[in-house]
Amino acid sequence: MSIEVIGASFGRTGTRSLKQALEMLGYVACYHMVEVFEHPEHLPVWQRATRGERVDWSGVFEGYRAAVDWPAVHSGRTTTTCIPRPRSSSACVTRTAGMTAS
């Protein structure tokens, strides 16, 4: 597994832009919720993780250097234990009350 950056943020807070920015900085590819739609074979893994079952993260994150948004953030504790030394686990995006996504 080659994940180096984990963006701990929720959807609709600029995670797609963060994904694009990380990829422009050389962290190609960055795992985002859109990956689940593009790789439906990942869905059973995420379902098992949600149930608390043991999963093989290396298969899901193969070829990715970063991860942001759901479902990777949902399983943050699990994924961080599987990633030996991420460069940053604090690329957080926050939104104040009243802000809307465009």
Structure description:
The structure is a single chain. The chain has one domain (5-82). It is globular and about 35 Å long. A 3-stranded parallel β-sheet has the order 1-3-2. The termini are far apart. By secondary structure, the chain is mainly alpha-helical. It has helices at residues 15-24, 33-38, 43-50, 57-61, 76-82; strands spanning 5-7, 30-31, 66-68. It contains 5 helices and 3 strands; from the N terminus they run E-H-E-H-H-H-E-H. The protein is 35% helix and 8% strand.
Strand % is 5-15%
Largest sheet: number of strands, sense, barrel closure: 3 strands, parallel
Shape: globular
Distance between the termini: 33 Å
Quickly count the domains: 1
Q: What percentage of residues falls in helices of 4 or more residues? A: 25-40%
| Rg (C-alpha, Å) | 13 Å
User: Would you tell me the overall average pLDDT?
Assistant: 78
Strand order of the largest sheet: 1-3-2
Structural class: mainly alpha
Give a count of the beta strands, DSSP E runs of length 2 or more: 3
How would you concisely characterize the structure shown here?
The radius of gyration is 13 Å and the shape is globular. The chain has 102 residues and is mostly helical. The protein has a three-stranded parallel β-sheet.
Features:
mainly alpha, 35% helix, globular, 102 residues, 3 strands, 5 helices, 3-stranded parallel beta sheet
List the helices and strands and how they pair.
Elements: E1 5-7, H1 15-24, E2 30-31, H2 33-38, H3 43-50, H4 57-61, E3 66-68, H5 76-82
Parallel strand pairs: 1-3, 2-3
